[in-house]
Queue: 4 jobs
Job 1
Amino acid sequence: MTFRKKINILLISSSSALGGGTKHMFMLGENLKNEFGIFYAIPKNEYFLEFLNPKNSIDIHERKIKLTDIFNLIKFVKVNSIDIIHAHGKGAGGISRILKLFINRPLIYTFHGIHLECHNWSYRLAYIIYEYLLGWIDSKKILVSQSENNYAKKSKIFLGNKSLIINNGVRNMTIKNYSEKDFDNKSFLASNKTNVISVCRFVQQKNIYEIIRIAIELPNINFYIIGDGPLWHQLKNFIDIKILKNVILLGSKRNVFRYLYEADIYLSTSLYEGLPLSIIEAMSIGLPIVASNVAGNCDTIIHGKSGFYYDLSDINKAVGYLTKLSKNKLLKQKLGKAAFQRQREFFSRQKMLSKYKKLYNEIFIF
């Protein structure tokens, strides 16, 4: 009797930032490592060292395509008998497509957020042409939400007949107890006010200044922001200049759930998303959501049933929804419970993993 070896998968990210794409990649790797051989290619970073070692990983440059990386990756693929390459994000997609030209392996490309309206016309045109010229190389294209798929088609991004929607998923958590502000007998957030929380990287896409503009209108509500990134000091200086006591930057946190459990409402002001892990993590404990009505976000909740959407820049509408939730505990609990149930139905980690297992097995070349 012959036994089939494990399928070996190389997961690639050209970003080492603690964002949704990298978190998604390591979530896949850690939860599938008993059934598949999992290997990583990622720039050096401090966030994921516990998952990486010299045998299962290779360092690549941050957000750059280097010939030395391509050469080293070709060698890494051959030495470790890699069967499938799975690229996460645009940079990794570029590297992986070049890599596939030199080695015949199935390539899965996950977009993790497409939004061309933030760029000028020349960038948009160049990106669309790039996808038409090199998109045929992909064996399968993964879009992480229905709205991302719709946006790709609307933007004329080449998908061919190779695209597949696999919703992002997160671990099912215990629902929040609204009668308890404390978690694990230690208080992280203020207990005498409504606490609104956001978890995001400090980059332009997350539109964090809109959180601050909303907070200015609601001085009796606390706004906590977890995360880090290039805009940290700029935002911190702005908050200091405005002397805003109700906006608190908490920095990066490894266990965001400790803070989510003490919060009352989750707020996202993003300009666009793929399908935001931060929102569905908040849903997984039963927090009601207030979010900008943009691609990715609009797949998460149902307006009026598990949270509220507001149009970008409509500060008054966002303020109104947050005020309504802060003053109505029963509504807050009702919407939070509906968000909790929706996460389990559509955005559970187990459902997501099952779909990836099936895909890896189907695409594997014997």
Job 2
Amino acid sequence: MGNMNVTNIDLGSVILSDAEFRDELLVFGGAGTVAAGTILARKRVSDSITVAAGTNTGNGTCAAAVYGNVASPVAGAWELKCTDAVTNGGVFKLTDPAGVIVKEALTLTAGAGVSTIFYLPELGLKITVTDGSTDFAANDLFTLTVAADNKLVVYAASGIGGANIPAAVVTYPVTAAGAGNVSIRAMIAGKVRAERLVVSGGSVTVAILDALRRAGIVAVSVDELNALDNQ
């Protein structure tokens, strides 16, 4: 028996076969439409980080933000504690939400009112500490609370907090009247037509397709006709 040749008719669908869906929330930054075939990512954590000072001797300040697309910070309460007092400065250590010390000897640039920024892309964090009029003392601390998110956003190669990791595909146009969350049925597994995938502001690369495959979505290149060829 000879090989069977199958010719697909293009019905305009992103889905090829074996699709699995899940009800999700898609975050919009403002009014707009997300086209069918757009690759989505899952925000693991919120971009903003809440920082609370302990009962400190020093009156310096601390601010933190999710940083870089190498890693996403673990959700929960991180602790930045002063280990050594220094005039117009200080040395700190950083503990993750599991209580593990992940960074030590974070040393401020000494100077009255000077701000020091610690870039920690391997942890997904950027921490800024500013010297105050009263120096930090040993055991002064700040609690940095990273909030879990888990909502879907449009994938972006430069995204942070998980926005740069392909996780799903929207298979129909989704429109929002303004900023907020829209309920959708996102495709989380199955086969899709590679030619119908969309990357907002960019192109679909092999690396993106590999990441989709790891998430459970296989992109297949398909040659299709606009009508049946009966000739």
Job 3
Amino acid sequence: MAADHYAALGVSHDATPDEIKRAYRRLARELHPDVNPDPASSERFKDVTAAYEVLSDPQRRQMYDLGFSGGPSAGFGGFGGGGFGGGLGDFVEAFFGQGGSRGPRSRKQRGHDAMIPLTIDLLDAARGLSRDVTLDTAVVCATCQGEGTSPGTHPETCSMCKGRGEVQSVQRSLLGQIVTTRACPQCQGYGTVIANPCPDCSGEGRVRTRQTLTVQIPGGVDTGTRLHLPGRGEVGAGGGPNGDLYVELNVRPHPTLVRRGDDLVTRILVPMTAATLGTSIDVTTLEGPEPIDVKAGTQSGETVTLRGRGMPRLRGSGAGDLHVVLDVATPTHLDDEQRELLEKFAELRGEERAEPVIDNAGGGLFSRLRDAFGGK
């Protein structure tokens, strides 16, 4: 602030409009050149007049109190006068710099991310594997190396904005001159124009192509798992940095193994005689067939747990368990001899007439089925 308008009028900063007016009239009668021809008085009269022009206008006074002024000698001269050196444009410039200028924007833009689906088998999900995937993507144009111009040429400075990437326009309003800034319509804000576009990419700096990538799939993945491959997405416009690639996995159902988190569940049908007398049965695991012992007197729904035979943990060490649910098969289509033997067996056990047994303790068939499948 070149001078203090309030001090020039001899009033306080919270002076009322009437106090400002009375102070000016008093000083004008004292300093006016027609009354006082002294050169020093004449200069002071100019300062007093400039101060009054500012402080008597509520809008100008408010702007002056915010600190925007060219000094009393400038007399403000309205928002478009010397005091603001361009009026509202200077006000915007004081806050944003260069009338809100942002400068030219880069032609290089980051490429979009991409996502592709990939279906694998349960065994592959357990062991992990490398899989080649093919995708349509954008790569840097080999002809112009991303510059977007024909060989031997380069982007030229825009003649309209002179490389600034934006143009300004001035409009008069009741508040004075208003300066607005917008992207240059000739270069779209880049500050340069491509007079001779590359014939292969039409000035975009990238071309579409089909690529094959090798994806490393860790053991333990599940349906819905997304693998993140940074920088393997499409290249950006103008040869900008690549986006990222995401591979979303879908695991096919296994014929006999059902996944429950890191655990696996399978069901085995056991003949009634084998369940009664006990036996050994091969079950399918991720590593191949494995024998399990079926204890004599095994009931339908009982579970045999093989520790560590489930899915490997994707985050952490070890693996889940394999739960083998044993279903006891009741024989059907008996011939006469078989039926006679079973009737004799029932007679020996006093089971000619079966009595219902209700499992109120929660430890029977239904609870075993619930536990096997992770129920609550």
Job 4
Amino acid sequence: MRRYGLVILLFPLSLFIIGVEAAEQYPVKPITCIVPNEAGSDADILARPIMQKASALLGKPIIIVNKVGAASSTGYREVFGAKADGYTIGMGHAALIISKLQGILPIDHRDFTVLGTYATFIPIIVASTKTQRPFGSIQEVISFAKDRPGEVSIATTGVGGSWWVATLAFQDGTGLKFNVIPQMGGGSFSITQVAGGHTDLAVLALAAAKSQIEAGNVRFIAIFGSKKAPGYENVPTLKEIGYNISWSSTQILIAPPKLPQEISEKLVYTFEKAANDPEYKKFVVERTAIPLYLPPDQAVNYFNEQRVVVRGIMEKTGILKEK
């Protein structure tokens, strides 16, 4: 009886030891990273190199899988529902907040294991040079739209996407009426529309628009941030021309809820090193984004503050679904 009792006492301890060893050995196989936007989008552009850095640090491949649809909620659902073993992680942005406020998702950043942030994008406005009315400046757009409500078309991300919110903020902040045309995905869809002359304007990140700006198919006419874009100092901010409008989309790393602490800590440490790697930060700046590493607790607080802002915008535009 004593021997049997000793086995029972030792059994839970053996499970604990196995669990600790598993965490120390993690990872032992490739990790999947869900990007809830299409390949080539603003989110995808910055996610791939940081995953390469993290992969080198962890010693295992990190495979990016693009899960597009429903204002990024398809990808978020997959991360949320994955096994909490560290082999499925994901990246998010403002759409994670927006989707819950819009009633598309029952979850937001507070329901995941947050691993930190790594960069933030500030949207810009570009004008097509291929339409019958190729606008030369943001002032020309505003003047035209005042006299012809609803005629100026703007391509942007899908309903609930971050740049869609930015577009609505632009419309609301100027008091004008535009023909807002949401696309199926992120910036790569919007730039195709405006560069081809199918829409007058597009709201997207400079990273997705840069090649078409350089090709002369679109004209960079305004930026939502408080600072000018490096290399484009002649382009005004919206605040500079008299409108108190700003918006940004911070990239956040997430994992399924209840991720074991040992694995979470290892991933947090890894992504902190990857996000602060000088080569990666240089890459972020070259893509006209801003390096922004925040540890998990600060990242949650930052998104909580963003949530308040988004809720106000959505309530004002009549699309808030959260009680």
